Amino acid sequence: MQDVREALYVGQRSDGTLTRRPMSPHLQVYRFRLSMFLSIANRAAGVAAAGGSALGLCWINAAAKGPKSFSKVQKVTGNPLGQLLLAGWALALVYHFVAGLRHLAWDSGYRFDKKEINEDGPVAVGVTVGTTLALVAGILGVAICRSRRKAS
Amino acid sequence: MSNPNKPHVTVMRSQLSRARGLGSGQTGVAHWWAERASAVALVPLSGWFVIQVFRLAGASQPEVAKWGARPLNTTLMLSLVILTFYHTQLGLQVIIDDYVHGKAHLPAGLLMKGIVFLLGLFGTVSVLKLALAGSSRGRIAAG
Predict the structure, then answer these.
(1) Given CB 3.0 to 4.6 Å as the disulfide criterion, which of A36, B23, B56, B88 pairs with A50?
(2) B28-56 and B71-99 are packed helices; what angle lies between their axes, rounded to 10 degrees?
(3) Average pLDDT in the B39-63 region?
(4) What's the mean pLDDT in A65-92?
């Protein structure tokens, strides 16, 4: 037996005799490709973006509850650790957005050849990193400027 | 292979699998379209939300409450929250379909739908409270 999973791949023919079901080759068989990482990263980013959105509800809920709750949330958003979490949420959202746009293009029949997909992968990574950095820096900058203006 | 003039039906599934009635439940296309349609709607809504985050970065609670009480912001926030969690539910269902097998599949899907439903409802109520409680308080103060 070459693969431990083979024990789970025993099936029955319609006449009752046992047969070994065909098994698809798994991850260890393939050479690493960017496209395979970007594919699973889109799924992971979707889950992370959903988790972040659930936390984001705390912000809108605190704003609805009143100034006291809102100041608690502001402690989190003002904390470097909280800001790192927000940056991670932004990264997940931006990548899921970019990969989603690629999926919509593929569904419409564009950029779906192997060559084009391999060309677009690094571009998607660049756009994601660039947009995330610009967003995080921009939002943080605006927040700092606004609170300084209030203080003075 | 066979006589091309003879009428025949090409079926990719075995007769046994057809007899068992397992396989496509004919709901996959609707799920796929719902996922795409909600994704397309979320593109402009997300863009709008990013602009609002820039407007509200570093804002105080009264400023956020004032922003949330404007009907246009309430409408778009509600659309964003509802569509985000609808799209989340569609996406997580695909992940459960892929990785959870056997008897655990149905309860896992129902549990996920319950949690995402409650989160979406919580967000909806929060947005509505921000919108309606703020404006009514203003009216009492004015009157």
Answers:
(1) B88
(2) 140
(3) 95
(4) 94
Give me the residues of B, 113-142, that contact A with CB < 8 A: 116, 119, 122-123, 126-127, 129-130, 133
Record: contact B61-A143, CB cut-off 8 A: no
Rounded to an integer, the average pLDDT of A25-31 is 81
B11-36 pLDDT, tens digit each:
677 777 767 766 666 678 889 999 99
Residue A10 lies in a domain: no
Nearest chain A Cα to B77, which residue? A60
Q: The domain containing residue A34 runs over which residues? A: 27-151
CATH number at A139 reads: 1.20.1300.10
More confident residue, A11 or B83: B83
> How close A2 comes to chain B (CA, Å)?
23
Q: What ipTM describes this predicted complex?
A: 0.85
CB A142 to CB B91 under 8 A? no
Does A64 sit within 8 Å of B129, measured CB to CB?
A: yes
Tokens read off for A58: 């705390």
Predicted pLDDT of residue B134: 56
- Report helix, strand or coil for A58: helix
Q: Which of A26, A9, A29, A10 lies closest to A18 in space, CA to CA?
A: A10
Inter-chain touch A64–B130, beta carbons under 8 Å: yes
Q: Which residue has the tokens 């608690």?
A: A72
List of domains in chain B: 27-142 (1.20.1300.10)
| Identity of the residue in B50, B91, B126 whose CB atom sits nearest the CB atom of A60 | B126
Give the lowest-confidence range in A11-25, A31-45, B87-101.
A11-25
HSE of B17, CA atoms in CB hemisphere, 13 A: 7
Q: Is B75 touching A (CB cutoff 8 A)?
A: no
User: pLDDT at residue A1 above 50?
Assistant: no
